[in-house]
Amino acid sequence: MAICNTVVPIKSKSGAISYKAQSQDEDALVNAAARLHMVYANKNGNILEIRFHGLIIQYEILETLEFTSDRKRMSVVVKDCQNGKILLLSKGADEAILPCASAGQQTRTFVDAVEQYAQLGLRTLCLAWRELKENEYREWSFMFKEASSTLVDREWRIAEVCQRLEHNLEVLGVTAIEDRLQDGVPETIETLRKAGINFWMLTGDKQNTAIQIALSCNFISPEPKGQLLLIDGKTEDEVCRSLERVLLTMRSTFSQPKDVAFVVDGWALEIALRHHWEAFTELATLSRTAICCRVTPSQKAQLVELLKSCDYRTLAIGDGGNDVRMIQQADIGVGISGREGLQAARAADYSIGKFRFLKRLILVHGRYSYNRTAFLSQYSFYKSLLICFIQIFFSFISGVSGTSLFNSVSLMAYNVFYTSIPVLVSVLDKDLNEETVMQHPQILFYCQAGRLLNPSTFAGWFGRSLFHAIVVFVISINAYAYEKSEMEELSMVALSGCIWLQAFVVALETNSFTKLQHLAIWGNLIAFYIINWMFSALPSSGMYTIMFRLCRQPSYWITVFLIVAAGMGPILALKYFRYTYRPSKINILQQAERRGGPILSLGSIEPLQARTIEEDVSPLSITQPKNRNPVYEPLLSDSPNSTRRSFGSGTPFDFFQSQRLSSYSRNCKDN
């Protein structure tokens, strides 16, 4: 415990010793050894100093056999500086250490201890050692250095050489470490489930440990609320039969409110991904919760890739170096910075300090970002199409001569100055308060369904731009074409109508006004006139005195008023009708916020679709862990159910599941 690690001791000026470790497990083991009076005191080069009851014992590190996800163990070769003995010290998973035990040693006691600790939700490690002869070590050391310096298949060669040394071990004992949950983990998972997010737990722990941790954080529910199905087997036939049983049960219970999950270990998962890809893919589309234990970093990345192939939107969250490949493979990567280091945080798209911050990241910032992006992208098309349609209409009455209604200065300033500032300030817009969004996570379904950004909404903005172009062109032409007016005057009237319409469009689509938004919308309108007055004062600008003459004409302001009234009237009427007689759940919440009253229930946002099929499987029993007092709630009984492809007749939510965030790595440690 004190020697077989990569921990670096740091001594303060007061003499206190602290440890800098790559993993929390090593830090816990070294501190536990120190409490047992075996203090890791100092490291000077390859010389370790262990203080035992005031006596200093020195060991020389000869070789370090690094931990890998394939070997699932690490070892060090040390030399006792007192008697010159060479020792091999190993620690790792029980499945990696116990098979390497010497033939004469009874390991049943250790197996029982591992199972007992796993039932309590503790992470276990086995410790072993053996003494090496000097000739054996020198021969092996030569092969190890040769494998370490090779350029082809280095990792495979090193693992093969390590296997030659790590055998005939004497198992010393089993350690158990509590992986303490952070505050707010069960509540965060429950809230995100209500938002329609599926969870997959990918961990390297034992099966029993993973199940108990899943129970403690409300990841799964105990019976009779929950049902856990087991996929196991060591051969292809065993895994195939187990997978078929679980798949049949998933089909039969898919539309039921019962919390059904499946658990699979790394060995069975490898067989399923290699030989039964289609069946496991179908299982992935049907399952809302999954626990994958004893998985390697490459398997985590494979599972994320599988979920992406099922048209899921995946979010992977992790806190250690083993989660980097999974985070990079997912559509969205979130890293937790803490005691596990910063590898995951640096490889991720977003970095958070605690797992509970994920709720705010998705429900608040994610939803606001989607709403703002949807408006910004569609409004940008709208304002560009508006000016293009007017140019097209003008080409018909100009004989398709190629003459532009607007001069080059107006076209350049249109996108750069006149219409860019108001929409950029819309990034501050909030349709609902943050507290309301957190209290009603079901409204995230609207984002998952793409209700604000889809072909139909784009067609609506396209139609709005065409309608506004007709209004501006028809009113401007009829007001000024038959008078003794210049071409520049007609151009400026049409441009003024466009700018006024867009100011009211942005104001209509804004949900929460601030001083900055008022300044951007109406101040930009004032800036339009100031800029054109400046150009009208320049004799060489081609717009000399145009804006001064227009502003003195009552007909100009009447024309602008008619454009705004004709362009915004139907849109306001349609918006009023929808808001009053066909309000969405978001509109209901907006009304409640303005009235100051609470909303007790939003009802069912996502409809149910029943499916029936024969039920035939015996579930794995789930028991509540002892010495834990979490609040167990049915995670799916009060959240809307869904199907993957269809949601009933007349339902616009036709691709909820394809937008779900599905990948989850156990990272709920106490940072």
UniProtKB/TrEMBL annotation:
<feature type="binding site">
    <location>
        <position position="67"/>
    </location>
    <ligand>
        <name>ATP</name>
    </ligand>
</feature>
<feature type="binding site">
    <location>
        <position position="205"/>
    </location>
    <ligand>
        <name>ATP</name>
    </ligand>
</feature>
<protein>
    <recommendedName>
        <fullName>Phospholipid-transporting ATPase</fullName>
        <ecNumber>7.6.2.1</ecNumber>
    </recommendedName>
</protein>
<dbReference type="InterPro" id="IPR023299">
    <property type="entry name" value="ATPase_P-typ_cyto_dom_N"/>
</dbReference>
<feature type="region of interest" description="Disordered">
    <location>
        <begin position="619"/>
        <end position="645"/>
    </location>
</feature>
<keyword id="KW-0479">Metal-binding</keyword>
<feature type="binding site">
    <location>
        <position position="294"/>
    </location>
    <ligand>
        <name>ATP</name>
    </ligand>
</feature>
<keyword id="KW-0067">ATP-binding</keyword>
<feature type="transmembrane region" description="Helical">
    <location>
        <begin position="556"/>
        <end position="577"/>
    </location>
</feature>
<dbReference type="GO" id="GO:0005886">
    <property type="term" value="C:plasma membrane"/>
</dbReference>
<dbReference type="InterPro" id="IPR006539">
    <property type="entry name" value="P-type_ATPase_IV"/>
</dbReference>
<feature type="binding site">
    <location>
        <position position="323"/>
    </location>
    <ligand>
        <name>ATP</name>
    </ligand>
</feature>
<dbReference type="GO" id="GO:0016887">
    <property type="term" value="F:ATP hydrolysis activity"/>
</dbReference>
<keyword id="KW-1133">Transmembrane helix</keyword>
<comment type="similarity">
    <text>Belongs to the cation transport ATPase (P-type) (TC 3.A.3) family. Type IV subfamily.</text>
</comment>
<dbReference type="InterPro" id="IPR023298">
    <property type="entry name" value="ATPase_P-typ_TM_dom_sf"/>
</dbReference>
<keyword id="KW-0472">Membrane</keyword>
<feature type="binding site">
    <location>
        <position position="322"/>
    </location>
    <ligand>
        <name>ATP</name>
    </ligand>
</feature>
<feature type="transmembrane region" description="Helical">
    <location>
        <begin position="461"/>
        <end position="482"/>
    </location>
</feature>
<feature type="binding site">
    <location>
        <position position="319"/>
    </location>
    <ligand>
        <name>Mg(2+)</name>
    </ligand>
</feature>
<dbReference type="GO" id="GO:0045332">
    <property type="term" value="P:phospholipid translocation"/>
</dbReference>
<keyword id="KW-1278">Translocase</keyword>
<feature type="binding site">
    <location>
        <position position="204"/>
    </location>
    <ligand>
        <name>ATP</name>
    </ligand>
</feature>
<feature type="transmembrane region" description="Helical">
    <location>
        <begin position="489"/>
        <end position="507"/>
    </location>
</feature>
<feature type="binding site">
    <location>
        <position position="203"/>
    </location>
    <ligand>
        <name>ATP</name>
    </ligand>
</feature>
<dbReference type="GO" id="GO:0140326">
    <property type="term" value="F:ATPase-coupled intramembrane lipid transporter activity"/>
</dbReference>
<feature type="binding site">
    <location>
        <position position="123"/>
    </location>
    <ligand>
        <name>ATP</name>
    </ligand>
</feature>
<keyword id="KW-0812">Transmembrane</keyword>
<feature type="binding site">
    <location>
        <position position="26"/>
    </location>
    <ligand>
        <name>ATP</name>
    </ligand>
</feature>
<dbReference type="InterPro" id="IPR032630">
    <property type="entry name" value="P_typ_ATPase_c"/>
</dbReference>
<feature type="domain" description="P-type ATPase C-terminal">
    <location>
        <begin position="345"/>
        <end position="584"/>
    </location>
</feature>
<feature type="binding site">
    <location>
        <position position="300"/>
    </location>
    <ligand>
        <name>ATP</name>
    </ligand>
</feature>
<feature type="binding site">
    <location>
        <position position="91"/>
    </location>
    <ligand>
        <name>ATP</name>
    </ligand>
</feature>
<keyword id="KW-0460">Magnesium</keyword>
<dbReference type="InterPro" id="IPR001757">
    <property type="entry name" value="P_typ_ATPase"/>
</dbReference>
<dbReference type="InterPro" id="IPR036412">
    <property type="entry name" value="HAD-like_sf"/>
</dbReference>
<dbReference type="GO" id="GO:0005524">
    <property type="term" value="F:ATP binding"/>
</dbReference>
<dbReference type="Pfam" id="PF13246">
    <property type="entry name" value="Cation_ATPase"/>
</dbReference>
<feature type="transmembrane region" description="Helical">
    <location>
        <begin position="519"/>
        <end position="535"/>
    </location>
</feature>
<feature type="binding site">
    <location>
        <position position="323"/>
    </location>
    <ligand>
        <name>Mg(2+)</name>
    </ligand>
</feature>
<dbReference type="InterPro" id="IPR023214">
    <property type="entry name" value="HAD_sf"/>
</dbReference>
<dbReference type="Pfam" id="PF16212">
    <property type="entry name" value="PhoLip_ATPase_C"/>
</dbReference>
